[in-house]
Amino acid sequence: MLHFKLDARGGKTLYMLSKGIYPLILLTGALTGLPLLGAVLAGNPIRQYLQFPPLTHSVQHLAFSKPAFWFFSLVAIALFTTLACLLRGAKKTPASPRAATGWPWWGWLAGLALALMWYLAWTRHPWFGPLQAYTFTPLWLSFIVLVNARTYANRGACLLTDQPRLLCWLFPLSSVFWWYFEYLNRYVQNWYYLEVESFSATGYVIHASLAFATVLPAVASVTEYLASLNYFGNEAYQPVVRISRSRGWALVTLVVGALGLIGIAIWPGYLFPLVWITPLLLFVALQILNQEPDVITGTVRTGQWRQLALPAFAALLCGFFWELWNYYSYAKWQYSIPLVHSFKVFEMPILGYAGYPVFGIECVVVTQWLRRRIKPGP
């Protein structure tokens, strides 16, 4: 049922991935070079952005501001209200003919593994001390398998059983994907890590890459689970927005995203939210310029809002568990966010959760880019 080999279909996958490599090269150059250009324009020393492993201490940011907090609160309320309306626009549909296959045996193993790793992550047994910093990856691998088991029980299919090739490729793509955000965080330093000072540079890369590899598979798996629920079967509320996919608008979007990347290095205290927006703008603009379909314009032009609403909600659910399991873990992250750092839920300031739906849309854009290059089937 679960097998992987590089046959003709695997060669096709590699070809399709290589076909889309040029936009990725441009995106990589923009994400790495433009913030450095902003740092040069701001007169900041380049050395501080290239330290590796990155420093894990908090930096001094702009103090808490009530006007800024209320402004971002209104933005967050509008975002969550829109998401709720799009989700409630779905109506129940009859169960899939392939549904209700029962709970698979591997789901039980995943549940036991998750419970064990959660326990080990939050406790401090001396015998487990040498491995205490390594609980994140097995915990989230267990979560991914468990969510797939829940989806499989709902409809008799899931990423793990029906699209294992896609799920497999999501892991390395996810690692590269999150390293981008780690790099951009050097300019705003909104989060930092504790208890990782003992890692060598090589050890840090390996450990972090394995942890980052679980991000896209987790969001994609939760998205599939939400789609397996009858409630989210169809949509009654489908506003259609006439939006252009012209090269002119794509170039405008590209320029706006580029200016945003430059700006985060010059005014990190004010433009830090652009860390989550500019990669999305650049990626979609490059897709349009490369004459590829993209999820964003495809959704708003057809009114199929579930394509964006489900991954946005899935990322919010994953965000809850990311912050929950991080809270008592040994190796963990903390936040230092300008203007709105208050009212924390776990380690995250409450307004920080508004970033997860946007992040979920970025996840589905990248996942769909990969899906178009992966032939369906085991």
Brief descriptors of the model:
about 375 residues, two-stranded antiparallel sheet, 6 strands, mainly alpha
Would you mind describing this structure in some detail?
The protein is mainly alpha-helical and 378 residues long. It is built from 15 helices and 6 strands. Strands 1-3 form a two-stranded antiparallel sheet. Strands 2-4 form a two-stranded antiparallel ribbon.
Structure summary:
Helices cover 63% and strands 4% of the residues.
List the helices and strands and how they pair.
Elements: H1 8-19, H2 21-42, H3 66-88, E1 90-91, H4 105-122, H5 136-155, H6 159-162, H7 164-188, E2 191-194, H8 201-212, H9 215-228, E3 234-235, H10 247-266, H11 268-271, H12 274-289, H13 295-302, H14 306-327, E4 332-335, E5 344-345, E6 348-349, H15 355-371
Antiparallel strand pairs: 1-3, 2-4, 5-6
| Shape label | globular
Given the structure, what is the number of helices?
15
Q: Which spans have pLDDT < 50 for at least 5 consecutive residues?
A: 1-7
The tally of beta strands, per DSSP, is 6
Number of domain units: 1
N to C succession of SSEs: HHHEHHHHEHHEHHHHHEEEH
Distance between the ends = 7 Å
Which percent range describes the beta-strand content? under 5%
**Overall pLDDT metric:** 87
Structural class: mainly alpha
Helix content: 55-70%
Largest sheet: 2 strands, antiparallel
Global Rg: 21 Å
- Which strand order does the major sheet show? 1-3
